[in-house]
Structures are given as structure tokens and as C-alpha cells.
Amino acid sequence: MSRFILGLTGGIGSGKSAASDYIAEQGIAIVDADVIAREVVAPGTEGLKEIKAHFGPEVIDESGALIRSQLRQRVFDNPDEKAWINQLLHPLIRQQILAQLEQAQSAYVVLVAPLLLENGLDELCDRVLVIDVDEQTQLARTQKRDQASEEQVAAIIASQIDRATRLSKADDIVSNEDDLRALYHQLDKLHAHYLELASQK
């Protein structure tokens, strides 16, 4: 693939969506792994049929959609079930990611994925941009956004790659401790840099 691909990641509550939304406003195509992960288990998909066959009808609601919270509970504390679901979904998600990266028409394309580094998706990218905040900010923002308990958020943070490792794998780091204007200012500079890199590819 000859186009320039930027991988964008960060821990939960770091502001990945705010960053990718702003980059999208600059006319850049966004491929969002979270959106794709929902699409591959939408009603009527092969992915959802396999989940229903494996976990039973209780993980599906009346409208035929996956009850995510139910599935999450089933796999969260069960390594075997987690491995099963990952083996099913990762190839489906990766296939869609590759197709969407291929179809992107902008100067460069951004692959947004919370588990970019954990799932080895960074190998598809020319550069990795990490949106960074400290753990206290992650906790506070996610609790407020998702109405979740501190324990729930802490468990999610613990299941992700640790901050030091994430930062060590980054080519570019944007701090999002401040307001959106500060975030956008940093992104403007990087956007200009990425356009330049993309034009050389």
C-alpha cells in the first residue's frame, strides 16, 4: 500500500475521538477500528451468527443485536472465551481495516484503534501518534463520560498496554491534559508534517 498511514491511539479517556474528529475536519479519511468492530457483529453478519452459536441466544436482544455488556461479562474473566472471541473477530476486523485503508481517498489516512499496539496494527502504519494523558485524567474523564465506577475504569486501564510502553512505541505524542484548543494547536502542526511526509511517499 503506497499511501501514508498514520496510526492513532491512546488509553481510554485520552481523547482519541476528539483528535480523530478534528483531523477528519481537515479532510482526512479516518478508519476507526472500534466502528469496524461493531460492524462485523451487526445483525445478519457471519460474526454475529458464530457468537450466537457459541454463547447462546442470551447474548442477543429481541431486535437481533448483540448485547455487548452481556458478552463482555462472559469473556472478561475467562481467558479461553476471550481467546475464542479474539480468534473470530480479529481476522474479520483486520480484513475490513485493510479494505477501508485501500479505499481512502485523502492525502493520508488515519487508522484509529485503542488497541493499535496490543493487536499489532501498528505494523500497517508509517507513523504512530499517541494521545497522552495521565492515569488520573483517564479515570476522571471515563467515569464522567461512561457513568462507570472507578473499579471498572481501572480494570480497563489495566487491560490496556501500560502508558510507558505506549509512549515508547510512539513516533509523535500529543498531550491532551489541557483544553481542546491546545489539542488542536498540536494537531495542526502534526497535520502539516504528515501532509509533507505523505507527499514524499
TrEMBL record:
Q: What does this protein do?
A: Catalyzes the phosphorylation of the 3'-hydroxyl group of dephosphocoenzyme A to form coenzyme A.
**GO biological process per UniProt:** coenzyme A biosynthetic process
Q: What is this protein called?
A: Dephospho-CoA kinase
Q: What domain of life does the native source organism fall in?
A: Bacteria
Q: What chemistry does it catalyse, as a reaction equation? A: 3'-dephospho-CoA + ATP = ADP + CoA + H(+)
First-listed, main subcellular location of the protein, grouped into a coarse class: cytoplasm
Entry keywords, A to Z: ATP-binding, Coenzyme A biosynthesis, Cytoplasm, Kinase, Nucleotide-binding, Transferase
EC number(s) recorded for this UniProt protein: 2.7.1.24
State the species of origin: Idiomarina baltica
What is the gene called?
Answer: coaE
Which CDD domains does the protein's record reference?
Answer: DPCK
Which pathway or pathways does this protein act in? Cofactor biosynthesis; coenzyme A biosynthesis; CoA from (R)-pantothenate: step 5/5
